[in-house]
């Protein structure tokens, strides 16, 4: 985290600043001093990107992470904390940080604890994760979907097996957001990535056991009519 967190703060600061957000507001959102924000903004992008590349994080992924975190911070800093944890866990599970860690601590050459711990979590219910991934792919390819997206962004939740808690529900970390007029998800689905939508789905599933998935959309009478028609056809 000594390299990752400051580097991401620098990139997120630059992203927010490019949207005409003041240094004081950026400092408040990131929980750091205004002087730190000023320091981040005075430097170029190359240094944080170079540092992150030493951890095995490409510039494309770094930009993707910073865009997602910046979007979350504007909506609710709590979302950003959750997304940051998901990003970090994903990096640990894939073993991307092992090389840099072993250079600093050579005696950890045979260590694979992070991959076993976080990688095992990623493998759990891979079929459920793929269900959500396919759904997200369809939404991203749709030109019409953005017109029914909420301003607070969208998520898709899927209750895996005999789901009883939010940890049993697959969703998108950071949710699905609008990017240049299109729906985009910046991270792979994972368990426990949603709280609000997952709790709603679990409550519905408790009362109607055949319900396994949920999505939050802008209300539209036409959409309601289409959904009711589809449900009637499926029940026949």
Structure explained in plain terms:
The structure is a single chain. The chain has helices spanning 4-17, 23-30, 34-42, 46-54, 59-75, 77-94, 98-104, 113-123, 126-140, 196-207, 221-235; strands at residues 156-159, 169-171, 176-179, 182-185, 190-191, 213-215. The protein is α+β, with helices and mostly antiparallel strands and 236 residues long. The protein folds into 2 domains: 4-122, no CATH class; 124-235, L-fuculose-1-phosphate Aldolase (3-Layer(aba) Sandwich). A hairpin with a 2-residue loop joins strand 3 and strand 4. Helix 1 packs antiparallel against helix 4. The model has no long low-confidence stretch (mean pLDDT 86).
Which strands sit side by side, in order, in the main sheet? 5-2-1-6
Q: What's the number of helices? A: 11
Largest sheet: 4 strands, antiparallel
Order of helices and strands: HHHHHHHHHEEEEEHEH
Helix content: 55-70%
User: From the helix content, strand content and strand pairing, which structural class follows?
Assistant: alpha+beta
Which ranges are low-confidence, i.e. pLDDT below 50, for 5 or more consecutive residues? none
Question: What is the beta-strand fraction?
Answer: 5-15%
């Amino acid at each position: 985290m000594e390299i990752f967190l400051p580097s991401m703060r620098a990139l997120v600061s630059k992203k927010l600043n490019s949207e005409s957000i003041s240094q004081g507001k950026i400092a408040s959102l990131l929980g750091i001093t205004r002087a730190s924000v000023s320091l981040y903004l005075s430097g170029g992008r190359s240094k944080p990107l170079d540092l992150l590349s030493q951890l095995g994080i490409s510039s494309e992924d770094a930009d993707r992470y910073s865009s997602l975190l910046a979007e979350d911070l504007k909506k609710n800093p709590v979302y950003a904390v959750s997304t940051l944890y998901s990003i970090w866990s994903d990096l640990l599970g894939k073993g991307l940080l092992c090389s840099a860690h072993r250079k600093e601590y050579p005696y950890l050459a045979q260590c694979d604890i992070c991959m076993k711990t976080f990688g095992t979590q990623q493998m759990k219910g891979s079929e459920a994760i793929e269900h959500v991934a396919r759904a997200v792919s369809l939404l991203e390819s749709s030109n019409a979907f953005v017109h029914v997206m909420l301003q607070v962004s969208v998520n898709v939740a899927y209750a895996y097996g005999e789901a009883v808690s939010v940890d049993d529900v697959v969703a998108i970390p950071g949710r699905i957001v609008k990017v240049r007029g299109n729906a985009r998800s910046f991270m792979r689905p994972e368990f426990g990535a949603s709280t609000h939508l997952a709790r709603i789905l679990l409550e519905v599933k408790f009362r109607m056991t055949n319900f396994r998935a949920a999505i939050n959309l802008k209300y539209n009478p036409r959409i309601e009519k289409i959904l009711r028609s589809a449900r009637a056809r499926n029940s026949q």
